[in-house]
Design goal:
Elements (H helix, E strand, L loop, with lengths): L5 H12 L1 H11 L1 H5 L10 H10 L8 E4 L1 H7 L2 H37 L5 H54 L4 E4 L5 E2 L6 E3 L1 H7 L6 H4 L4 E2 L12
Parallel strand pairs: 1-2, 1-4, 3-5
Helix pairs in contact: 1-6, 1-7, 2-6, 6-7, 7-8
Keywords: Coiled coil, Signal
GO molecular function: unfolded protein binding
Pfam family, one: OmpH
Length: about 230
């Protein structure tokens, strides 16, 4: 009787499906990046806005603010509660997936032990069952990741709204026309008063303190040699 090819395919699928719990574990490790990622702050219009600003009437020059909202979010009191709740959700989902994966592995092992004793018809039935179990496990993995991402968005939404309100209030008080994410800046002339870092002001409005290094701008600050040239012509 020819040996069926399913066990090899199943073994490969176990390698793939076994990565799911690793991906779930990595979600929490990436929380600071994911919760502070571009999906919460949309800089898609930055280039367009800067172009419009550069071509506007010089006499109507705008004041621009920028802030490190990632640093502010990381220090907001509610972020720890978000992380703890996501940790609980991750543990629960991992447990469910591990049980389902263990059941699948047991069925694969049973198939491999019994395949030489099964008829061709029964082999096909068992292979179909294993494929269906594999597909169901993959669906469960995707659903678990989607559920965790949705839960993260729900938990983060109040914090993001609170942060946006603080940014709006600081921008209004300082008569700013535009506020950018710090990461959107490539260069800031330190001698200009038309571009200001409002990170500490936003944090203060929220009643939190952040380290000086977190509030400092990431782009280069150059008051003497903005073009970075090394000499004179």
């Amino acid at each position: 009787m020819p040996q069926p090819e399913l066990p090899c395919a199943v073994r490969r699928s176990l390698v793939r499906t076994g990565r799911c719990t690793e991906r779930l574990r990595s979600i929490l490790c990436e929380l600071n990046r994911s919760t502070m990622s571009n999906r919460y702050f949309v800089p898609a219009l930055v280039l367009l806005l800067l172009t419009a600003w550069g071509t506007a009437d010089v006499q109507a020059q705008q004041r621009i603010g920028f802030t490190n909202q990632e640093a502010v979010l990381a220090n907001m009191p509610g972020i720890q509660d978000v992380q703890e709740q996501l940790q609980q959700e991750t543990v629960r989902l991992q447990g469910d997936l591990q049980e389902q994966q263990q059941s699948f592995q047991e069925q694969v092992q049973r198939y491999e032990q019994q395949q030489s004793l099964l008829s061709d018809e029964r082999l096909q039935e068992r292979e179909t069952e294993l494929r269906e179990m594999q597909a169901e496990l993959q669906r469960s993995q995707q659903e678990a990741e989607q559920e965790l991402a949705q839960r993260e968005m729900e938990l983060m939404q109040p914090l993001l709204e609170e942060l946006q309100t603080a940014i709006n209030e600081v921008a209004s008080e300082q008569n700013l026309d535009l506020v950018l994410r710090e990461q959107a800046l490539l260069y800031v002339n330190g001698s200009t008063s038309d571009v200001v870092n409002i990170t500490r002001d936003v944090a203060s409005r929220l009643g939190i303190e952040i380290d000086e290094t977190e509030a400092d701008p990431g782009p280069s600050l150059d008051t003497e040699n903005p073009m970075g040239g090394g000499g004179t012509n």
